[in-house]
């Protein structure tokens, strides 16, 4: 009987730890795939193009943003974005404004509502693969070398 109680307690505690994970996130870096939805087979590539799909499905390592410590602590002030980009503006303790933008885009908002969740919307979303997901990181040093003032992008 004691063995059964012990096993029950053990499985209960293991289950509880999965249901209520700790918020102690101590990783400095995280690896993610920017756009796994752009992975496509050869036939799809023939009809819709290969584009930058290889980069969209390549794991990328990025630094984890610690909102409590970065720039003395960041406070969200505005959710934004245009027709494709999701963005978030945050204010640092020193008053400096920081803007974070999504790498992946959602162009479906330009379509009429009845087409947004249709094949047309899916094809339009798929064509985001024509853009290089890491382009801002590539362009920034070029702009710097030309002396053009611009934001310094990071992942």
> Helical stretch count?
6
User: In this structure, how is the largest beta sheet organized?
Assistant: 3 strands, antiparallel
Compressed to H and E, one letter per element, the order equals HEHHEEEEHHH
Distance between the termini: 55 Å
Number of strands: 5
Catalogue the unreliable spans: 4-22
Global shape = globular
Summing up helix and strand content along with how strands pair, one would put the structural category as alpha+beta
Provide mean pLDDT, rounded. Answer: 85
Helix content estimate:
25-40%
Our estimate of the beta-strand percent is 15-25%
Strand order of the largest sheet: 3-4-5
Gyration radius over CA = 22 Å
Q: Can you walk through the features of this model?
A:
The chain has 155 residues and is α+β, with helices and mostly antiparallel strands. It has a domain at 26-66 and 104-145. Helices cover 34% and strands 17% of the residues. It is built from six helices and five strands. It has helices at residues 2-19, 42-48, 53-56, 113-116, 119-126, 135-145, and strands spanning 29-32, 60-63, 74-80, 87-92, 97-101. Strands 3-4-5 form a three-stranded antiparallel beta sheet, with no helix packed on it. Strands 1-2 form a two-stranded antiparallel sheet. Strand 3 and strand 4 form a beta hairpin. The radius of gyration is 22 Å and the shape is globular. Mean pLDDT is 85; it is low at 4-22.
In summary, what is this structure?
By secondary structure, the chain is an alpha+beta fold.
List the helices and strands and how they pair.
Layout: H1 2-19, E1 29-32, H2 42-48, H3 53-56, E2 60-63, E3 74-80, E4 87-92, E5 97-101, H4 113-116, H5 119-126, H6 135-145
Antiparallel strand pairs: 1-2, 3-4, 4-5
């Amino acid at each position: 009987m004691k063995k059964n109680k012990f096993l029950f307690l053990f499985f209960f505690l293991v289950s509880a730890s999965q249901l209520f994970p700790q918020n102690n996130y101590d990783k400095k870096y995280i690896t993610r795939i920017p756009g796994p939805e752009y992975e496509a087979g050869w036939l799809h590539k023939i009809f819709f193009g290969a584009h930058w799909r290889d980069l969209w499905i390549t794991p990328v390592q990025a630094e984890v943003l610690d909102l409590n410590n970065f720039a003395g602590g960041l406070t969200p002030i505005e959710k934004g974005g245009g027709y494709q980009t999701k963005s978030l503006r945050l204010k640092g303790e020193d008053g400096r404004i920081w803007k974070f933008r999504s790498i992946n885009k959602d162009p479906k908002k330009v379509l009429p509502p009845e087409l947004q969740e249709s094949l047309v919307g899916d094809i339009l979303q798929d064509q985001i693969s024509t853009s290089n997901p890491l382009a801002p990181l590539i362009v920034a040093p070029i702009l710097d070398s030309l002396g053009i003032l611009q934001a310094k992008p990071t992942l």
